[in-house]
Structure formats: C-alpha cells, structure tokens
Write a structure and sequence with these properties.
Oligomer: heterotrimer
Number of domains of chain B: 1
CATH superfamily of the largest domain in chain A: P-loop containing nucleotide triphosphate hydrolases
Number of helices of chain A: 11
CATH topology of the largest domain in chain A: Rossmann fold
Shape of chain A: globular
Structural class of chain B: mainly alpha
Distance between the termini of chain A: 49 Å
Chains: A alpha/beta (260), B mainly alpha (359), C mainly alpha (314)
Order of helices and strands of chain A: EEEHEEHEHHHHEHEHEEHHH
Number of helices of chain B: 14
Helix content of chain A: 25-40%
Helix content of chain B: over 70%
Largest sheet of chain A: 6 strands, mixed
CATH architecture of chain B: Orthogonal Bundle
Strand content of chain B: under 5%
CATH class of chain B: Mainly Alpha
Structural class of chain A: alpha/beta
C-alpha cells in the first residue's frame, strides 16, 4: 500500500478546473517529484493534501486514512509536514522560536503546568529544545539561532522553513519549490539535504520543483502535471522523454511550425 | 560586552539571564516594598493604580501584542471585574477574597462569548466588534441597576485580611504589589512556553501556524480568555481602590487608555506593558507639574490634557513605534557596543501595502 | 426573590411587547424617515472611511472629528464672519480640502507601510487631539447651528417629514451622484480607482500615487465637512459630536469596508434600524443597536454584506 494515495482528485475555482481526476501514489521511503509548467495545479494539489483546499471530488488517503476533509491543523498531527512556495515564516520571531513551533504539536504539558512552569513544562521545553538543536545541527543553522527571521537572507529563510517542517517529525514532507530563489551553492546543499532526509531520517519526500537538475539528482519517481491533469509518471528519464511532457513544456508542434 | 557560556538548555529557561539582572530586580523589589513608607499616601495611591493597570495592560498585550488581535473594548472586561467585586461584596456581602477570583473568571467567561465573532474576524473588523462590545456592556451597566447601581454607581469598601484592615492606601498597595508580581510571573511563563509561541505564530502567519498543527480557534480562544481574566482581576482590584464605581469609569476612553499603555510601553513585551501602564497613569501628574512652566493661555485651557495625550500617542507612533521599552533597549545596546552602534540596527521591516488585508 | 420576580415580569412584558404586531404604521414611517436622515449622515462618514481605507489602507478613526471640525469651520464663517450660507459651504469645503492635503503631506505620508494597528492608534491620537484643540478654540459649549431650510414639516399622507431631514437625504443623494460621476468619468477619479486597486501597478502606469493619497484625504475631509454641515442643524454643534463617527464604523463594516455603495447602504440600514429599535423595542437599545446588528451580521457573514472574502494564497 502506498504511503499517500491520491485518487481522482478534482478541484475547481469558479469555472477553472485546477485539478481534474488526478491520481498519484507516493511510496514509503521515496523522493517523489511533481513537475509541470506554471499553473499546472501542483501547488493546488499540495493545498488539497494539506487541508487548505477542499476538493470537489476524489480522495487523498494517507496511511490508509482518508484525509481529504481533515482540517489543516490536524494534517501535521497525522505525520505530514509542508513548506510553502512564498515562505510562510513567523517573521518577527527568532529562528529558534520558529523551529520550536515545530514542536508545538508534540507538547504534553497542560495549560496550568505551563502557566506555573511546573517540572512537566520545564522538561517539555528542554526536550523540545534538544530535538530542535538536532534539526539545527542537521541543517547547519547554528549561526542564526537567535536572529530574527526578517533580518535573514532569503536562502537562509528557506532553510529555516525546512528545519521547522523537519522539527514536526513527519513521515511525509511536502516541499513546494524548495530550490526556487536559491543560488547554485545553496541548491547543491539542498540536494544533499533531501538525500539525507530520505536516507538518514527516513522521511518520504514529495516535492514540486522547476529545476530539472534538482529533480534528476534527487527524485526516484516523477509525476508530470499539465492543466490540472497527470500527463506522465515514471522515473525522471522516462518522464522527460515522454512526448506529452515535451509538448507541455515546448508547446504544440504545429504552433512551432507556424512560427518558423 | 557581557555574555554567558550556557552549558545546558535549562540555562536558557532561567528567569534571569545574568547575576546582575537578579541583583537589579532585587533592588527594584526592595524599593517597591519600602515605597509607601517614605512616598506618602498620594503617590502610593497613584502607584497602586498604576499597578492595577499593569495587570490589565499585561493581559491586553497577550491579546494584542502577542496574538495580534486588536481589542478596543477592553474596558468592558475591566468593568465586569469591577462590578463582580462590587456586587459580591457590597450587595451580597461576600468576602473580597472570594469575589476577586470570581471577577477574573466572570470576565474570562464573557471573553469566551466574544470568541464566536472573534474567531472569524481579524484586524479592523475585530477592533470594531470589540469596540461595539464595549458600548454594549456600558449600556448594560446603566440599565441593570439591581446589580450595578445603574447611573448611581456602587460604593465598595476596602477588604480586610483576617483581623487586618486594608483600609489604608499603604496596606492596599501591598495587596496590589503582590498581585502584580504574580501576574508578571504568570505572563512570563505563558510567553516562554509553547502557549506563548503559538500566540506569536497566529499573529505572524495563520497559514503557517495551521501547518504546524496549531488549532487557530483554540489558540485565539485561549488568548481572549486569558486576556479577559487579567482585565477582570485588574477591575476587581480597581473597585475597592477607588471605593466608588460608576459607568463613567469604563467608557471607550478607558479602552483606548489601555491600548495606549501597551503602544507607548511596547507591544509584545512584559517590560513594555509595565512601563506603559506606569507612564500613562502618572502622565496626568506629569502634565500637572509641567503645566506651570507653560504660558497661561495654553495651560489654563480645559482641553489641555486631552491635547497632550493625543499628541503623545501620535509622536510615539511617528518616532518610537517600539515604545519606551524599545527606546530602552536601543540605549542599552548603544552602551554595550559603544563605538560600533549603527543607526539601522533596529530598522523595522516595512510591509508593502495590501499585505495586511490577508494574513 | 422579589427583584427576580420583577425582572421576570419585566422580561415577559418586554418580549410580548416586542413581538406584538404593531398597528402603529404611522409611527413606523415617522421613525423610518427620520432614521433615513440619520442614516445618510452615517453613510457620509462611512464613505469617508472607505475612501481613505481603499486608497491608503489607513482606518481613519478621526473621521468623526473631521466632521466636527468642518461643522465648526462653517459655523464660524456664518456666525462670526456673517458669510451667506451657500458661500460658507464652498469655503468650508475648500478649507477642509486644504486641511486634508496638509495632514497627508505633513504627517500621514511618513506612516505609509506601517502596520495597520499603528495607523489605527495614530488616528485615535489625532481624534483626541482635534477634539481637545476644538474645545480650546470653540469652547466646550453646545451651539445651535442655523438651518439653511426652515418652514413647516411636509405632510406625506399622515407622516410628517421635517424639511431638515429632506435636505439631508437630498444633499446626500446629490453628493453620492457627484462622486459616482467623478469616479466614473474624470481622469482623476479613474486614477484614484487604479490606486485603490493596486498601488504598485498604478505607480508603474505613471500615476502619481502619493498625489492620489493627498487627493483622497482632501476628498474624504470634504465629505466629512458636508456630513457636519448636514448633521449640525438637526442635532447640535459640540466638540464631542465626532463620537457619532464611531457609529459610522458599523455602517462601513456592514457594507464590507471597501465598497462605496456598501457604505451608503450600511449607513442607511444602521440609521433606520436603530431608530426603529429605539421606537418599538426599548429606548436605550437605540444607542447600541448598530453594534448588535453588526455583531449579528458578522457572525453570519464575516466579510460584511457587500465585502469580498479575501483568502490568502499559499
């Protein structure tokens, strides 16, 4: 059974069919890439999986459980973390606080324990901090621990967002264009991290990416979307050879002929 | 520059980072304890009032500063607290010590009822709904004389503690001082644990907060309830202090007053709430003192105090939006790094327009 | 026990009173028409909020004080300088326009891009300041503002309509028509619309966005002045009359805060419904009815009656 199985998912915005009958299987332990031209519905699919959009029909099943109509704040509790295309960080808080928020849903201490700072709350804070420091070490964020997000360069902010998602201890992580806006050095780091997330942390990755090099480098399997429908899936090589994919990216044959 | 080598995560959770902080707060505490013995009744009374506003400002800062929900009707919670104590002690004849916690819970409970509209609204919509809530409570006070005394108000006596009478200003000052210390510690605990971080998360990005597994409804409810509780307790302490409460004590001006305290002091900061509450409460005294230095045609005007007050709000927002505490931090930082201070260290991030319509 | 019993009796009487079908149709229309005049004033103030909010994202809590200043300026011109009424109106509008431009140039310009909360507090400070300064200049007395129209109430069937109310409704209708034509057909109006929709794009199209801010402040100060001149004769002239502005907020929010027709309809709904509530339910409900309506509407429709629910894209 796949870890995440999306079946015949459809989503409309007014008259626009953002997704039509999308099928997608993400196996446990793989890195799965979603590609497609702008407006193909990749982010919409992410939003449907993470509960921000309600699809009109179809279902998303995670670990045998239907999550299609689950509220967005319950999704991470089931084991799915995500990052955002246009960074959604807590901009006026420090890096440490941002990542500590990733531990929010693991808290056990009650309101009164926290309000009175009893030993349970204290231990919980220390425990959360220990886990956060592991993530910080993993992504080499040590120099920025106490910096406020708004003062950090874009690449570091993206890294903090990834760290925050990892601090949730998810089983599946959704990365929305993780390499967008990064320079080549940061992109290279990202590729290594994705490898490590898969190999060392044993977290399944589903990512949207435009940078084909990154996709070729990290992805085990690729699904291509165009106009809200799946047009190809398979290994990176297979998908890139697929005539529909080439057509989606380069345009119609006769259109090219007419302009020639 | 001072720094400390921290060797365990516990050290980051301590109340005082440095030994010098502990000494500083210790000295402050001693100062506060001996204050009534040399300052006289008049200033003791004013500082007691400031202490009560500290509690309310702390609560409002949790709601507005940390959680980002604007309340322009906070005087209503304050009023509910005050009238709960007034009704319980004066009309029903119960002890103040039973009435005070009930005042907090009553206000918290009413805060809960406001949550229904508050959950779906943000920004200005919420501000206006809370403002309306303030007007509604104001009207209810006038029209429910069996409980509130209506326009005639209620007389409330100072409480007793066992055989001790707390009738003097100095003795009541100590009651308030203990309460302020308790509430400062409570606030500190709230903001340094996961609850406080969740508040900040909801303020900065609701989307990201949800994707961290933070239930928006629950966190906003918490913020409103806690904030209402603080204001209720503050109101409950306020009533016996001034001995008489009437509808005039809890108008929209009072709500604005509370917001101004946290703006002038510093949003999302405990120090800020305290500085702001003390500054604004004592402001009328400052104005009274400063008046004599001004020419008579200005200082004799009826509206002089209001004008100065309005001007202070505008000047703070124009020149020091981080409040008194922000200015204090800047000066402290200037001394710490002395020759290396750069003017844009504290430059704020300006948001593009339209950015705040949706969060 | 006794008070409880009385309270229950009172409540039952109140409810049966409230749900009993009223045959008092004359009273209904009487309240309706006077409520309409009041609603027009709310609508004009709400219009001022909306104009400024749409263009600059400032929520101007001093809009009521603008109205008060406008009314006092007009009063001074008539009373002390003995200027004829219609010239007074023109002069007041010019003075208020200058006031709006100056306020924008000297202060508001420096606050562009600040968080909404700071802006709200700033305008609250401004409101307190204006109110106090008005008290210094014009004292804290209540003045009678001379009404431009006089004469008998007009009988419409059995309903009597005060000429002052007629004037308010007529003037509001005229002003709204003029504003509509302005936004629809003049270049300046279209540039203002563009600025309201997307400042950055407007800027790229060569529109002087900062200039538009000044125009909008001037426009909204002028609308407020009209509201003041209309309200003062029917109500009173006092430095605290700006508090009425706080009641125009529910009107603006009801209309969706950002929609000009919404503000007008919102104002009328608030004005009429609170007058009816005051007449048919309990007198004291009148003062808070606007907020009760607002809370009820927002619980059902958080974006107001005419607002568009903007959801953030991620």
């Amino acid at each position: 059974m796949p870890l995440l199985e999306v079946t015949e998912l459809s989503k409309k915005f007014g008259g626009v069919h953002a997704l039509t009958m999308v099928n997608l299987q993400v196996e446990k332990g793989e890195v799965h890439a979603l590609i497609g031209p702008n407006g193909a519905g990749k982010t919409t699919l992410f939003n449907c999986i993470s509960g921000f959009y309600r699809p009109e029909r179809g279902s998303a099943v995670f670990k045998g459980r239907d999550i299609t109509r689950t509220a967005p704040h319950k999704i991470p509790r089931l084991g799915i973390a995500r990052t955002f295309q246009n960074l959604e960080l807590f901009r006026n808080a420090t890096v440490l606080d941002n990542i500590m928020l990733g531990r929010y849903m693991h808290k056990r201490a009650s309101f009164f324990s926290e309000a009175l700072f009893l030993s349970k709350a204290k231990n919980q804070e220390v425990e959360a901090r220990r886990r956060v420091e592991e993530v910080i070490d993993f992504l080499d964020l040590q120099p920025y621990r106490d910096r406020v997000i708004a003062q950090l360069p874009f690449g570091t902010q993206k890294c903090v967002e990834l760290a925050r998602a990892l601090a949730l201890d998810p089983e599946l992580i959704l990365l929305d264009e993780p390499a967008a806006g990064l320079n080549s050095e940061e992109t290279r780091d990202l590729c290594f991290w994705i490898e490590d997330i898969k190999e060392d942390l044993e977290i399944t990755v589903l990512l949207v990416e435009h940078n084909m090099r990154v996709v070729n480098e990290v992805a085990d399997r690729v699904t291509a979307l165009d106009f809200g429908a799946v047009i190809a899936h398979g290994t990176p090589e297979e998908v890139q050879q697929h005539p529909d994919v080439i057509q989606a990216y380069l345009g119609e044959d006769d259109g090219a002929a007419a302009s020639a | 520059m001072k720094f400390k080598l921290k060797k365990s995560y516990m050290e980051d959770l301590k109340l005082f980072e440095y030994k010098s902080d502990m000494v500083g707060y210790g000295v402050l505490l001693v100062f506060l304890f001996i204050f009534p013995s040399w300052a006289g009744n008049y200033w003791t009374y004013n500082l007691t009032l400031a202490g009560i506003y500290c509690i309310a400002a702390l609560g409002l800062n949790i709601l507005t500063g940390y959680t980002g929900m604007i309340s322009l009707g906070h005087a209503a919670f304050f009023a509910i607290g005050a009238y709960t104590v007034g009704y319980m002690t004066t009309i029903l004849g119960h002890s103040f010590w039973i009435a005070l916690p009930l005042a907090g819970f009553a206000a918290a409970f009413v805060g809960l009822s406001l949550v229904l509209p508050a959950l779906r609204l943000s920004g200005i919509y919420l501000a206006i709904v809370t403002m309306g809530f303030g007007f509604i409570i104001d009207q209810v006070i006038l029209e429910w004389p069996e409980v509130t005394g209506g326009a005639n108000g209620l007389l409330i006596n100072r409480p007793t503690l066992g055989p001790l009478s707390l009738n003097s200003d100095a003795s009541y000052y100590y009651v308030v001082l203990v309460m302020v210390i308790l509430f400062v510690l409570l606030t500190k605990n709230i903001v340094r644990t996961s609850m406080g971080r969740a508040f900040v998360a909801v303020r900065d990005s609701e989307v990201a907060a949800q994707s961290m597994g933070i239930p928006l409804a629950k966190v906003k409810t918490q913020a409103f309830t806690i904030s209402g509780f603080y204001a209720g307790i503050a109101g409950g302490l306020f009533a016996p202090l001034i001995n008489f409460i009437g509808p005039d004590n809890f108008t929209i001006i009072e709500s604005i007053n509370l917001i101004v305290m946290i703006i002038v002091g510093g949003l999302a900061s405990i120090h800020g709430s305290i500085f702001g509450a003390i500054f604004i409460t004592l402001l009328s005294e400052f104005i009274r003192v400063g008046k004599d230095a001004l020419p008579a045609f200005l200082s004799q005007q009826v509206g002089f105090q209001g004008a100065v007050y309005g001007l202070i709000i505008m000047l703070f927002i124009l020149f020091e939006p981080m409040g008194i505490y922000g200015r204090y931090l800047k000066i402290k930082y200037l001394f710490q790094v002395f020759p290396l201070y750069r003017k844009d260290t504290f430059r704020r991030e300006r948001k593009f327009q339209k950015a705040q319509r949706t969060r | 026990m006794d008070t409880n019993y009385i309270r229950r009796r009172y409540l039952i009487a109140w409810i049966s009173d409230a749900i009993k079908p009223r045959r008092d149709i004359v009273m209904f229309w009487q309240l309706f028409t006077s409520g309409m005049a009041l609603g027009c004033v709310y609508a004009l103030i709400a219009l001022g909020f909306v104009l400024i909010y749409k263009a600059t994202e400032v929520i101007n809590f001093a809009q009521g004080e603008f109205m008060m200043v406008g009314a006092f300026v007009a009063f001074s011109l008539i009373h002390f300088a003995h200027v004829p009424f219609w010239i007074t109106v023109v002069l007041t509008l010019l003075i208020m326009a200058a006031f709006g431009v100056l306020l924008d140039r000297l202060v508001m310009r420096f606050l562009v891009g600040e968080p909404a909360f700071s802006l709200v507090m700033f305008t609250i400070g401004l409101a307190l300041f204006l109110r106090s300064v008005a008290g210094m200049i014009w004292s804290t007395d209540t003045f009678a503002f001379p009404s431009p129209v006089s004469g008998e109430a007009i009988q419409l069937g059995s309903v009597a309509i005060a000429p002052g109310d007629m004037l308010v409704v007529g003037a509001t209708a005229l002003l709204v028509l003029l504003l509509y034509l302005f936004f629809r057909f003049t270049n300046l109006g279209i540039a203002l619309q563009a600025t309201s929709q997307n400042q950055f794009a407007a800027y790229l199209m060569g529109i002087n966005v900062e200039g538009m801010f000044s125009v909008v402040w001037a426009l909204s100060a002028m609308v407020a002045a009209v509201a003041g001149i209309l309200l003062a004769p029917t109500l009173f002239l006092h430095k605290d009359m700006g508090f009425i502005g706080l009641k125009a907020f529910p009107a603006a929010v009801l209309g969706g805060f950002g929609s000009i027709p919404g503000a007008i309809v919102g104002g009328l709904i608030i004005g009429i419904s609170e007058n009816l509530a005051g007449g048919f339910l309990l007198p004291w409900v009148k003062d808070i009815f606007a907020y009760l309506v607002l809370i009820a509407v927002l619980i059902v429709r958080p974006e107001g009656l005419f607002g568009i629910h903007e959801k953030k894209k991620v």
